[in-house]
Structures are given as structure tokens and as C-alpha cells.
Design a protein that fits this description.
Keywords: Oxidoreductase. The protein contains twelve helices and seven strands. It is α/β, with parallel strands linked by helices and 264 residues long. It has a single domain (2-261), classed as NAD(P)-binding Rossmann-like Domain (Rossmann fold, 3-Layer(aba) Sandwich), CATH 3.40.50.720. A seven-stranded parallel sheet has the order 3-2-1-4-5-6-7, sandwiched between helices.
Amino acid sequence: MQNRIAGKKIIITGASSGIGERIAWQIAENGGVPIMVARSINKLKNLQMQIKKTYQINSYAYQADLLNQKELDNVINQIIAEHTQIHGLINNAGAGVFDYVRDMQWSDVERMFQLNVFALMRGTKCLLPHFMQYNEGHIVNVASQAGKIATPKAAAYAATKHAVLGFTNSLRLETADFNIHVTAINLGPVNTNFFASADPSGDYQKNIERFMLHPDKVAMKVVKALFTDKREINLPGWMELGSKLYHLFPQALERLLKKQFDKK
């Protein structure tokens, strides 16, 4: 794996914490060059110093609020201008808020779509000509198991992840002739600060704590798949099996798993 990643420059959005931060560490550990994008430049600079101290790897930090289209365009263009070649893009930034449809705030819905879908699509579109020019690249989109099985209180969030999966699958077909790999990451609950905004009460996190994925495990799987033909990473495995059964027997699974679905 190290030979495949060594020296490759890889953009990671939402790199200041959670899964994005752990992916940056894993890339550096394998000799790659993390190009980290997030709102918090102080966190990124601190991470940059830690990576340098631990692995003697140069990484790069760029500040941008991906909710702002102009900032997103500018940071992608700046990265392309400052680096001869970018080899990969990991669209990791995302947010969620769990509410019943009757209770959801429209500002939350708009924010989720802007960050989870529009920023992901726009950043990819900005970088795609660069990958095509070099006839090389890997685009990794962090989606969710929620994009395969929607549950109560996750209508808007699940809709964004359905959109990410649709975009990813179409993009894979469009880029097949350009040696550009496209991978979707479909995750169940991960033990990160995601739930601070998604579930401020903490009830859902408490209910599913024993099932939560560790961000290091996720990061290792993602980095292991870089520059391979891996179509999807689905974690945990039992949840992916559940999603396949759900597509075959949706009504039966909704009845059988009602209590689990209602844990939010």
C-alpha cells in the first residue's frame, strides 16, 4: 500500500477533526502528502506540525468554508496552482441534523444539502479537468449507509446521501476512460463529533454506542483503497448485509427492525 500512495498529493475536505483528520494521518503514515481543507486553520496548522514531527512528511493546510461557493472555488484553484499535480480528492466534509420532517428547520436542510451534496459536486467538478489532463486520479466520496436505508428523523440527511451515491455512481461511468477511480464510502455511525449537531440530546449516540465504528478503522480502510478499483467501502459489514436484505424485502425489514429504526 505504501508504494501505491507514497508521494501522492491527496486533498481531504473536513480534515480538521474526525474521519478527515484520521485519514490525513493514515496518508502521511503511508508516505502520501495530505492537502487538508477545513474552516479551522488553527487546527489544520497544529495537525500539520504533528504530522511533520511524527513522519517527517510535508502536508498542506488551506482554510475554506465549503458552504461558501466562492471560497470553495478559490481554494481548489489555489491548490491546483500551487501544486504540479493533485492525485486524489477525498470529499469527507459533511453534516447532519436528525429531526422529523414536521419539525425540521429549513436552514438545517439547506446547510446539509450545501455541504453534503453541492460542495462535494462543485469541488469534484473543479478538480475533474485536472485529473483528466493527467489521465490519473481518485475521487472518494464519503456517503452513508443512510443513503441505502433511510430511517425516521433522517429524511433530509438520508436524501443528501442518496444524492451523493447517485452522483458517485454516474461519475464512475463518466470517468472510466480517463484512469480515474471513483469510490463511495458508506458508513454506519462513527464515533466522532458528528453527533454534537446531529443529535444534541445525546440519546441516539447512547443507544447505538456499542455499534459505533472507530474513525481509525474507517481511515485505514479508506486509505487502503486509494488508487485501486474499489467501487464501495461499506462499514460495518452487518449493516451492509441489512441494506441488501432491505432492498429485497423492504416491508418485512421495516416491520422487523422498527425498534432499531426508531432509536433516533
